[in-house]
Amino acid sequence: MKTYEQPTSRELFMRAVKVIPGGVYGHLGPAEGCFTPVSSYPLFATKAQGAYFWDVDGNRYIDYMCAYGPNILGYNDKDVDAAALAQLKDGNCVSSPSPKMIELAELLVDTVKMADWAFFAKNGGDTTLFALMIARAATGRPKAVLTRGGYHGVQPWTQKDGHPGVTPQDLANNLYVEFGDYEALERVFTEHKGEIACFMATPYHHPVFEDNRLPPEGYWKKVRALCDREGVVLAVDDVRCGFRLDVKGSDYHYGFEADIECFCKALANGWNVSAVCGKDSLKEAAGSVMYTGSYWLSAVPIAAAIACINKMRDIDSAKICTEKGRKLTQGLVASGKRHGYNLIVSGEPSMWFMREEGDDTMEIHQAWVAECVKRGVFMANHHNLFINTAMTDEDIAFTLEVADDAFAAIAKRGLVPQSGAAGKDR
Amino acid sequence: MKTYEQPTSRELFMRAVKVIPGGVYGHLGPAEGCFTPVSSYPLFATKAQGAYFWDVDGNRYIDYMCAYGPNILGYNDKDVDAAALAQLKDGNCVSSPSPKMIELAELLVDTVKMADWAFFAKNGGDTTLFALMIARAATGRPKAVLTRGGYHGVQPWTQKDGHPGVTPQDLANNLYVEFGDYEALERVFTEHKGEIACFMATPYHHPVFEDNRLPPEGYWKKVRALCDREGVVLAVDDVRCGFRLDVKGSDYHYGFEADIECFCKALANGWNVSAVCGKDSLKEAAGSVMYTGSYWLSAVPIAAAIACINKMRDIDSAKICTEKGRKLTQGLVASGKRHGYNLIVSGEPSMWFMREEGDDTMEIHQAWVAECVKRGVFMANHHNLFINTAMTDEDIAFTLEVADDAFAAIAKRGLVPQSGAAGKDR
Predict the structure, then answer these.
(1) Do the beta carbons of residue B286 and residue A20 sit within 8 Å?
(2) Domains of chain B (ranges plus CATH)?
């Protein structure tokens, strides 16, 4: 199997570092090399369509990062883009909002089970911060309970102590528990009785570098009852999972109801909008918080979101992504086994996480992912991956061929997992 | 002169409040009635083109809010939108950025005098927070000096104590001085020697409700020298002024160089992108801060920004807006005088602020603005206004006719300014 060359990506990167800190920033860039197979990584894309993008050297990749989530229906989905372009003719960022904003709010209220109202912003982080501020405004309490390793954006309050640019005051109102540990949560609620505004968590635990963890049986129901008892707002950060588990909300998927739910990523198939949905009990508090931004009422992404949600409902995109993800991951595991590797798959199939067993240094997984990328299957190493509905059975078959060839390539290089007890279970 | 009816706006608003907290949120909405002439306000727009938008009742407005800043070249500028649409065919929000990102960074470095590098985000508030985090990362110090009444977005650290959802810890590292008071700044720097990471301010002071204030003669040069002496990062929030005073940066306009400059608003004529520009001395610190978001590398707004900056350079949009603003405000003042009103204009002509003299309750100004809006001239009451380059001499002439008719209308209703010393100078 032919492997790609990426000389133009390297040349452009040398140009980029002159005028952009780090060249390509964030988790999308090579600065955090542990996330991405940098040396095999296409750094700049010139074209995207459906399940694929093409890099500046003309190589095609099946994209299992899906722009880190937004791509749910395939790049440049014709229905979503047609809605966006039709709206553009009528105006985008205007002094007054379009009535489309009401339509989108009504559609979310009709679609997301817990939603009595909706509010729109731009970043996922805009929505998690708004959720926190609403909870504080509603309860008059300052503290937030978060899960260790949970990701809620890049604002200082969500980062770790000691991260550059973060002060201790930014984290002064945070309390941390392990995801899924109900007893720990109950303990924190008791220790800080009357101080806690909200418990914020993702629907299931999808950190980087670690096996992703589904909620234990009965966990969310007990959490819901505890929050009710203590008057704590239950905020679900559905930015990453949203619409990939169930179009009705990931809380619905796991059998409970959040007080606030945050959406972004898959909401508009890549058009720039995020949303907070909430219960009526928090509507007045939401209206009291000063919260807005230059582009927050822009009508083009709102029109795109309407088309995206309608299409996700029509085709049941969560079901499609789950089935495709299950088929793909089963194939990947089987492929590994044929070459003596045990691929550990965790999380939900539509946005699974994987690692190799017996790979303490993570070297084996990184090498395998790099070999996959060089053959046209785009993945990150230690971040969950994503499925979109444009992926076909042929794409999955091609991916499995690539995976097989990549496993063969690393086996040939003598990369052998540590056996038995020596293989640390991360 | 005929005045508009807006029944559909009212009907839609009743629909909106059911599913959106406050109906229309932020400074764009009627919740903060003091900002906007609510009862005469078109709440929803269906079409925008050039200098105008049309509300859901089919009324046309010359828009002096310019979407609160983004509209610099006129709505739906054909050159900017053509660049955006061409890019859309090649992909928007993709796992890898487009090389257009490098092009935009290079263009900003070439355009903005102080810029050695650029970084892109989505909100203006993303850029001010990033500036603060960079300053903290670079200096190892926690504190920020801000100007009282300065606006840097809606994040808790930029809000006021006691605002809903804001905790004392959010503001624990802030120190405040009056804009333009060099001695006060020097005093704070002495009192908190070695603790201050940055001084952040707008290029000139453009708060709501107050006369806007230009920097006193020599102010910025002294501030620059003070920051150099104390190792404090000088961060200019050019989100609102950016490109309306000088395409080379508002620091350049006032004869100094910032260490970090924040842009948003006029950067891409309404397409969703913001930018931080910085000096080389802060590039490493910028690269060290964890900062990214789902849509931050989206190529469509980046392509739009390239076209917008090139066009702003080509036509010297800041000069055009300044000249049109001067002509318009002179005409408005003259119109007021004819009817016994003294309109006090402050700030820069391209984004002037105005109020009536002898109007302690602000009732006169609110009544006059409402009469203007009902005649097709869209303005907010106590927020600065904006000029765009699509506004013609005919638009200005029409605006002056409306202003005259509106002054006549409020005079007829017996709204008379308090005279002499009784007229409080705000």
Answers:
(1) no
(2) 7-63+317-412 (3.90.1150.10), 78-315 (3.40.640.10)
